Amino acid sequence: MNHTLEARPALKFDRNELSGAFGDIGTDFPLLVSMILIAKLDTASVLVMFGLMQIVTGLVYRMPMPVQPLKAMAVLVITQKLSGRILYGGGLAIGVMMLVLAATGLIEWVARAVPKSVVRGIQFGLGLQLASLALKDYVQAGGLPGYGLAAACFVLTLALLGNRKYPPALLVILLGVVYALLFNVDLGALGRGIGFTLPHISVPNTADVLTGLVALALPQLPLSLGNSILATRQITEDLFPRRAVGVRKISLTYALM
């Protein structure tokens, strides 16, 4: 089906954009915190750079576009307790691989070769996986109050789904903050932890890159191709049919970030 392409939209900031900004927090934040703790990453460097990548993505695409946290790499780092330098090396390695795929046009061949049913299956499977993770690892950890919070958020989301006056994500986040303050957060420790720290640059050596390539980048590549590139292209086509985004552009920004 042919669609007339829309002009490049202006940036806008309203409650719906703010709500959309929390779209990936359920997966991004736990993975980021876990990797910071396990791999002993510099917190300021990780969060500042991740935030900057979100801003750049918004400026480039002018639509809701995920900054992928590389879930397979994150799980491997967490479960195998790999060092931060190996993680940096793996990130550099997969960035180079994706850059080659984008620059040579091979990513477009991959997009043509993979049927849409496979992409839909990846989307569906990932949704089931995340729902299962939430039910097994997070909801149960909170006990009865946790189940109550999950049920309230679920009902609230269904009731306000598609409501542009009261987008549900903001209310869900507010409920989560209130729950945390009541049951989990030590305000004294939180206050003592507030400070100002500049990020710093870490450069992996050749051994780190090679180890990261084998241990992290190669296991991550199939998931990145399926979820980060093909599924992302498909969902932008579904939701924004007049603002086509090609797999080559997505791959290029993926590689550079």
UniProtKB/TrEMBL annotation:
<feature type="transmembrane region" description="Helical">
    <location>
        <begin position="45"/>
        <end position="65"/>
    </location>
</feature>
<protein>
    <submittedName>
        <fullName>Transporter</fullName>
    </submittedName>
</protein>
<keyword id="KW-1133">Transmembrane helix</keyword>
<dbReference type="GO" id="GO:0015098">
    <property type="term" value="F:molybdate ion transmembrane transporter activity"/>
</dbReference>
<feature type="transmembrane region" description="Helical">
    <location>
        <begin position="86"/>
        <end position="107"/>
    </location>
</feature>
<keyword id="KW-0812">Transmembrane</keyword>
<feature type="transmembrane region" description="Helical">
    <location>
        <begin position="144"/>
        <end position="162"/>
    </location>
</feature>
<dbReference type="InterPro" id="IPR031563">
    <property type="entry name" value="MOT1/MOT2"/>
</dbReference>
<dbReference type="Pfam" id="PF16983">
    <property type="entry name" value="MFS_MOT1"/>
</dbReference>
<feature type="transmembrane region" description="Helical">
    <location>
        <begin position="169"/>
        <end position="190"/>
    </location>
</feature>
<keyword id="KW-0472">Membrane</keyword>
